Every structure is written in C-alpha cells, then in structure tokens.
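User: If only I could read backbone structure tokens as easily as an amino acid sequence. Underneath my words sits a plain record pairing an amino acid chain with its backbone structure tokens. This is the protein in question:
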Amino acid sequence: MKEFLLIFRMDYSKMPKGSPEEMQAMTKKWMDWIGGIAAQNKLFERGNRLTTGGKVIWSNKSVTDGPYTEVKESIGGYSIVKVDSYEEAVELSKGCPILSLGGNVEIREVSRL
C-alpha cells in the first residue's frame, strides 16, 4: 500500500458564513467522511486544519509573512490515506466535504526514500 497526502484547498474569502448549527453540520460531514475512511482501515493520519497565517523562508534566508492575501486558494488542512493507487485516493477524495464548498483536494503520493 502507498501513502497519499490529501491537501484541502479553497478560497476562504468565499466560504459561506454559516450559523452555529450549519457549522456543526459541516463539522459532522467532515467527521463522518474521515470516519468512513478510518472504518475501511485506509486512514494513515487524520491530519489537522491549518491556521490562515504563517511564515515563508526564501532561498536567501529572508523570512516573510504568508500565505499572501493575493493567493486565491489557501491550504486549509490535510490528511494522509494509505491505499493501493492514485485512483483509489481519488475515489476516497470525491466524498470530501470541501468539494461542496467550492474547494478542491490535491492528492500527492508520499515518497519514503
């Protein structure tokens, strides 16, 4: 089996501001989706949500604030799944709740060299 990093991206400035009940319902969708992957014994690491701030270190060793406001999509979180192929990772990702919010899932194979 191979490990695949699922990177959750979206334009958070366009994310709907829901009521507490709507936010709770969305959280439940995420937990159900991740729970379904775990129930199949395909969840390697649940991952976490990421904050909107950060730092970028450049090749000249300068440090700037980031991510930048002009960046359209921002990484909001990640998970790692353990499956046989990209195709299987794609199928799991099709159920990701971020897709219903206009976001996307980037899938990258983890290399353990």
Q: What stands out?
A: The CA atoms of residues 74 and 87 lie 24 Å apart. The chain has one domain: 2-109.
